[in-house]
Amino acid sequence: MKQIPVEIGRVVASKCGRDQGRTFLVTGEIDADFVWISDGKTHPIEKPKKKRRRHLKPTQTLHPELRKSILEGKYPENFELRAILSKEEG
């Protein structure tokens, strides 16, 4: 079984912590162990949460156009992020 990578633009679910079970979008990579995640609500794009990769469960959903824009330095608005994640949850 192939491991799904935790990468920029991927929707992930938190496995640990007080945000356990909630979905986020990976908005940045720090190093091999940590990434930045945002949900547009409690952790907006302007203030993402630092989270260990091993504490995240990646989903099949990857947004390539969003990944490309983040890598170019153009971050989505918080309302757009909430809309993306609400589709994933519901």
Give a description of the structure.
The termini are far apart. It is globular, with a radius of gyration of 12 Å. The chain has one domain (10-89): SH3 type barrels (Roll), CATH 2.30.30.30. It has a five-stranded antiparallel sheet, covered by helices on one side. The protein contains two helices and five strands, in the order βββββαα. Strand 2 and strand 3 form a beta hairpin. The chain has helices at 64-71, 78-89; strands at 10-14, 23-29, 34-38, 49-52, 56-62. By secondary structure, the protein is α+β, with helices and mostly antiparallel strands.
What is the compact description of this entry?
The protein is α+β, with helices and mostly antiparallel strands and 90 residues long. Helix content is 22%, strand content 31%.
Properties at a glance:
SH3 type barrels; alpha+beta; 90 residues; single chain; five-stranded antiparallel beta sheet; globular
Q: Number of helix segments? A: 2
DSSP strand (E) fraction? 25-35%
CA-atom Rg in angstroms: 12 Å
- The main sheet orders its strands as 4-3-2-1-5
Describe the main β-sheet briefly: 5 strands, antiparallel
CATH topology: SH3 type barrels
